[in-house]
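Much of the work behind modern protein science is quiet bookkeeping, done one molecule at a time. The protein below has been through that process, and both of its lines are reproduced in full.


***
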Amino acid sequence: MEEEQKNNVVEEVKPQEQAAVVEEQTPAQQEAEVKEEEAPVQESAEQESAEQESAVEDAAQEETALTRESIIERLQEMVGDISIAKRPELESLKQAFYKLQRAAQDEQIAAFVAGGGTAEEFKPEPDPIEEQYRKLMNIIKEKKAAAQEALEIVQKENYKKKLELLDRFKALIEKANTEGASYNEFKALVQEWKEIKEVPADKANELWKSYQQYAEQFYDIQKLNNEFREYDFKKNMEAKIAICEEAEKLADDPDIVAAFRKLQKLHQEYRETGPVSKESREEIWNRFKAASTVINKRHQQHFEQLKEKEKENLDQKTVICELLEGIEYDKLTTFQSWNDKTQEVLALQKKWKDIGFAPAKQNQKIFERFRAACDAFFSRKGEFFKQAKTDMTANLEKKTALCEQAEALKESTDWKETAEKMADLQKQWREIGPVQKKYTNAIWKRFIGACDYFYEQRDKNTSSKKREENANLTAKKEILAKLKEFDADNLSDSDIQAIQQLADDWNSIGFVPFKVKDRIAAQFKEAMEPFASVVSTRRGRQPQRGGAAHDAGSPREKLQRQYEQKKSELQTYENNLGFMNASSKAGSGFVDAIKSKIETLKKEADDLLAQIKALDAEAEE
């Protein structure tokens, strides 16, 4: 009798306590009861955290497809239905929007710099999309705050209501122990319980445990309505089997994150489904838990792989930061070197965008390091171009002054002295440095035009040399013809004087074309051979080397002046060629012509030098 009374005692179950089931159970059954009651609740906290991670992961996977316009559309949807505005998605949209915003601004800055501006001078235009974004985010923030405040009020009211329902459950169980209780009364209380939804998160677990324990106590002590209890057990069992089957199918779902989310909903359904018979409780729970374990492991592995990928991304981004921070600015001293380095930096920025996220804890920090390195580069570049613009203005003034000097000299006929001055002007030109691109062609053409005009006039003045040599050749041929008219064996005094005069005339005539010089000299020597005893062919020759200075009007002196003039011209053109190779492409159209001119001058100078040597050799004989 006492034992029966013990079995009929109703234990008071408080929300903060864990009450034991009244019916006697084996230790294994009691352990199974505890597992069924506690395990879903323990997993719930883990699943809630994992769900937030999965939401972030989903947003990261979708980020590459987002545009600023699509983000605005999504925010407008959230404004219309604030219940869908979840924090993980809002954070992801915020990061994506400002990433796109920075990318768009970087492109504007690059275009501005490419157009001749500097990063410091760039001022972004007001962006209506960004204004709309800020406005929508503020609206969402206000609505969420209001919704949260209202929700907290509702949750507190619901908590009170559920505490009252638990008292009514307790009273019903006491009634069932003493007088017997209607099953319909119990079902009505259960229906009221299910209709009360939101409660404070920190109270949900203890409420559910208390409710579950009262429900099981009611069924365990309810004898009069055993048929209904068995019916409920059966329906609950069928529902839990269906839930298990759904959970088991998720193992084959290729979308791991979606499968994990579905599992969370199945856990909620499982918890809301009523109890099953004692002998089936452990079995059905173990089946559901096993299916959940498979999904949880896949989800965990997925995030471990994701974290490993993020770690690799962090390593790659660290390398990019080191490359940017290691730029040797002291070697960037020309426009071309800065432009080349800018292309490298832009390529690194593109690679950065393609890499993906780093681990959450380091993502913002590594981005700030990257942004600081990029800002430092473009700041230094802006300073260089700003200073260069100032220098180029001064360079334009200096080159304009050189143009004026060259134009003042171009009409001079003092070929040697003026050529030296022109060469000096060209040397100064090379040392000055570049001017702004829009002035480069004009100032160069002005300067080189003055130089070329002078050299062309000089060349025209010296082109009579060949005509003079051909006339000398004709005169010497006439002398050869006259020498053949004399008979060496029968010479009169007048003949000897005439031959001597022809020899003197020969020596005074001057140079002939270099290619016939040796041949005509041999013919003269052969023609004079018969008269060698009576006529001197040295008469009228220039002093030999080492003797007195050359006569300023002698053929050798003329030849020497021509040779020096050719050398001066050659040096000028070589200077011009070096200048154009070292400067911009503005003078590229003159390069081939100057190279050809240089080759011609070298050949003419070599010919003159050979003639000088030949003349000296004759003088030494």
Q: What stands out?
A: Confidence is low (pLDDT under 50) at residues 1-52, 59-63, 538-552, 581-587. Residues 310-387 form one domain. The two ends are 161 Å apart (CA to CA). The chain has 19 helices and no strands.
